[in-house]
Amino acid sequence: MNLEKLLKFQVPAVEARMTAKDAMLYALGVGVGDRPEDPADLQFVYERAQPFKVVPSYVNVICHPGGWIMAPELEVDWVKLLHGEQGFEMHKQLKPDTSYVSSNQILGVVDKGAGKGAMLFLRKQLHEVGSGDLVSTIDSTYVLRGDGGCGSTLAEAPAPHALPQRAPDAEVSLPTLQRAALIYRLSGDFNPIHADPAIARKAGFERPILHGLCSLGLATRAVLRACCDDDPERLKSLKLRFSSPVYPGETLVTEVWRDGREVSFRTRVAERDVVVLNNGRAVLA
C-alpha cells in the first residue's frame, strides 16, 4: 500500500435517493418478515404502515463509496482485505422518498508490521440533501492482510468493547433464508463471493457466504427486539466486530446484556456454535 497516496486520496462522495421500495428490499434482505402479520415487521416492509419506518442499519448501505480501495495508485492488496469492524450512530431517522449524500474521510492507518497486515479506518457521514442535516455517522475498519509494513498514522487501534462477565439478560434467535445473500445483494453489494459457488470456493468457502453487513442488520434487529420494543427511534448507535463468516440458511442467536442505556451483545450461529459477531455495543436513545 502507498500510504502517502492513500492519505491524499479523495474517497468519492455519493448521492442517492431512497424510495420506500429500497427500504423494504433492504429490510427483506436482513430477514424482516419472518413474522409477516406482526406490526413490528410490517412497519419496515409495508408501504401503507402508519408510520412506515426504515431499519436503521440501512445507513451502512446507502451512498456507499463502492470499490474505491481498488484504485491502482493506492497499491492496496485488496484481494486480502477483510471487513473487521462496523459501527453507526443515528442523528436523524431515515425516511423514504428522500435524497442523501455521503462524505467520506480516511481517519488513519495502524500498521501491525511486515507480514502482519494493517488496519484502515474510514468514516462516512450521511447528510440529507436539501436540509443538509446530518443523518448518520458510519465508521468502518478494514483489515488489510497483505499491507503490513506500510507505516502508521495512528498509535494503536481502539480496544474492542468488553462484554459483561455474567449470563446474558436476553437472547434473540433469528433465522436466515437459503436465498438471503441473493436478496441482500440487491441492496448494492454485488461481490460474487456471495452468489457464485465457484468464486466462493476459490476464496476458501464451501459455498457463498452471507454479507457481513447483512449479519449486522440481523444483529440490529435483535437489539431492537430485545431492548427497543422494535422501535428504531430508540436506537442511538451500534458497533460490532466481524469474527467469522455466516452461511445463508443458518440461525443467528444474539445474546444481549442490558446496563441502562448501554447494550452489549454478541451473535453466534446456532448450527455450528460459532461466534460470528463479537464485542457488540449499542447505545439507546
Task: Name a few traits of the molecule.
Thiol Ester Dehydrase, Chain A; 285 residues; ten-stranded antiparallel β-sheet; alpha+beta; 32% strand; single chain
How would you describe the overall organization of this protein?
There is one protein chain. This protein has 285 residues and is of the alpha+beta class. It has 2 domains: 142 residues, Thiol Ester Dehydrase, Chain A (Roll); 115 residues, Roll (Thiol Ester Dehydrase, Chain A), CATH 3.10.129. Helix content is 18%, strand content 32%. It has a 10-stranded antiparallel beta sheet with strand order 1-3-4-5-2-7-10-9-8-6. Strand 3 and strand 4 form a beta hairpin.
Quick recap of the structure?
GO terms for molecular function: (3S)-3-hydroxyacyl-CoA dehydrogenase (NAD+) activity; 17-beta-hydroxysteroid dehydrogenase (NAD+) activity; enoyl-CoA hydratase activity. This protein is an alpha+beta fold and 285 residues long.
